[in-house]
Each structure stands twice: as structure tokens, then as C-alpha cells.
Amino acid sequence: MVKILSKIVNFLFPQICFTCKSSLSSDEILFCKTCFKKLPFVKSYCKRCGRLFSIDFSEVFEEDTLSYCGNCLKDPPPFERVFLGFHYREPISSLIQRAKFSENFELAYQLGRLLRKAIEVSFEFYDYILPVPLSKKRKRERGYNQSQLMLWGYGGFYLPKELLIRARHTRPQSELSLKERLENLKGAFAVRGSVKEKKILLFDDVMTSGATLYETAKVLKKAGAKEVHLLVLARA
Prior knowledge:
236 residues; alpha/beta; four-stranded parallel sheet
């Protein structure tokens, strides 16, 4: 039924490529096939913490043999794996901004679908798939949690368990230094329910300093989670 409705909507309101403005076919999402290939995909990064490598090792080796950076070998973060889709650059950055601040919930959903085309992660490995939660105040301001809508677009419609909550409202991270970001997030998240020995996939739209994802993963681990993996739309 959903596919039929989607076809009807596309027929009545044809979708166009965000970059070149050509009409999109039913299997294209936001970008035509030509423009999709030109998107800023993240190719080489630390699979443990998400740190970007300056050299694209995928062009040197058939498989990226440098999985972890030196920092993670010495002092690993509270999560075991990171999956990154795109660099936070144009045109992806503009689309994310629109999805977050222009009340464009459909675009947020489509960005999740786009990420699925860039990198595919099997949900079957995980006990819980959770979006990074917004505070009640921020959610009222935006009208929705863009990460939750992106996650729906990525994995299909479902209601994630509200195991991870925003316990208090915090200042926007973009306004703060790294030290201030870490301080700002202390006590900001809480676990509601049991995650003991569970494998969790945590989703967020943008990873900048990594402070938010670090704090949420730390809270989940403290509550007994066995593993925490991260799925991120764009890496700044």
C-alpha cells in the first residue's frame, strides 16, 4: 500500500534532483544517478571512533586494512564501531540544515533513505536501534526529532523503544568549544528500562566533535549495554 501511494505522489508531484534539477526515477532518492556518484562519501576513517583519515586507503588497498587510529588503540571510546555515510559538505550539509530547521520532515525521511544507498548496516545484529534523543523543549521547537525520521527512512517505519531519553535541556553544541561541549552534556542523557547485555545501534544525523555520541554511548555502557555501534549520516 505504501509503495502504491508513493508512486501516486511521484506521478502527481514529480521529484527532481537536488543538484541538476532533472526528473528522478522511482529508484532515485534526492539525486539522480550521476549526481549521486559525486556526493561526498566518507571512504577512509577509523572504524572505532569515526576519526577521518587524510589518506584514502581504499584507493591503495582492496580493503581498508587500517581500521583503527592510534588514539583508539591506546584509549578506545565507549563504542565499538562507527558507520559513516557522508562528509558534512555540500550538498549534504544544506539538506541536513533544511531537514532540521525548516520543518521539512519529509526531507529528513528521504535523507535516511539516501544514507541506506550509501552504506547498508544490518539491523538484525542489534537488539535495539535508537536515535539520539532531543530534549522536550527542542522537540517542541522543531516539531519532531529529525534523527528519528532519518532512522525511519533508513530502516523502515517502526517505533523505537524510548530507552534513551534526554534528561535535561542543554545549550546547542554548535555554540561551544570541545571542553564546553563535554561539560554541557554531563547528566544530559538517561536510560529508561533495561539494556543489560544488549547490542545497540545508535543513530545521529551529524558527528562533529563526537561529544554527544560519546556521552550517550557512555550512559548506555554504564547501564550494562554489551556493545554500542554508531550510524551517522554525515561527519563534520
